[in-house]
Amino acid sequence: MTNGDERKQKVGAALVVGGGIGGMQAALDLAEAGIKVYLVESKPAIGGVMSQLDKTFPTNDCAMCTMAPRLVAIGRHKDIEVLTLTEVVRIEGEPGNFTVTLKRRARFVDESVCTGCGACVANCPIRFVPQPLDGAPPVKLAPDVQARVDQIIAEHRHRPGPLMPILQSINAVYNYFPEDVLRYVSRQLNIPLTQILRVATFYNAFSLKPRGKYIINVCMGTTCYVRGSERLMERFADTLKIKPEETTPDMLFTLKAVRCIGCCGLAPAVMIGDTVYGKLTVKEVSAIIKKYQGTNGHGQAHAG
Ligand code: SF4
Ligand code: FES
Q: What is the ipTM of this complex?
């Protein structure tokens, strides 16, 4: 047997508690050293917090690009046994010779046949409770609001997939989604409110909170950040006397931090409506705000 073979020889079993990125890497390192690994995770899947992130600090690397190779390697590794929905109840013994008692919760899905198609998620009777349309009190809207919403619904309801154009039209009128309007749309289209909220909260262009007439999108993507977008954000916030994600009391401006808006060559960039302000300096912030406070709120494209 060579030294390499000896190193690959199994020398025991290890328990890794927690299937976040650290636990995943530890399990892979141990398994590569020839040790049988039990990777215990209390959640339904490994991945931890990182699986919920889009990008990671400080390099803004795609979180899934970091995780995916490890997920595949763990899934394929013959010496790693993943125990999800599992918690450690008791540990007895000493280092090198210990016994662990685990408690595993039921998954209610046969993992050997589930293909992960997601159809059960979309039709979950708990998450997406069908709205009790029959016998439920009707949603009351102010007459003018109802007339406007009825008109929007009538324009789109016979198109395939009417929800999105209806939400876009309502957003164009109100600049956000009043809750009673969404409830009304749910009843009229016979679509569960939870399903409507899923669409309404997915897109950046939509909001469930009232927003200002002008949304100031300060790009905090990497290029803009290193070129000073944080100082721009501070200057906008100081001048408008609001914090990011807040709206001025006169409902004229909402200040938002956004990711790359696709104008990195103009960094640092700020977008208001369809207008991009590129290579912006803090000295120009106050003039831009004044322009929108005047009657002509639509600035022209501007690059430093
Ligand atoms: S519907 Fe799809 S994801 Fe859900 S249990 Fe069946 S195969 Fe798995
Ligand atoms: S990082 Fe700001 S536009 Fe790309």
A: 0.54
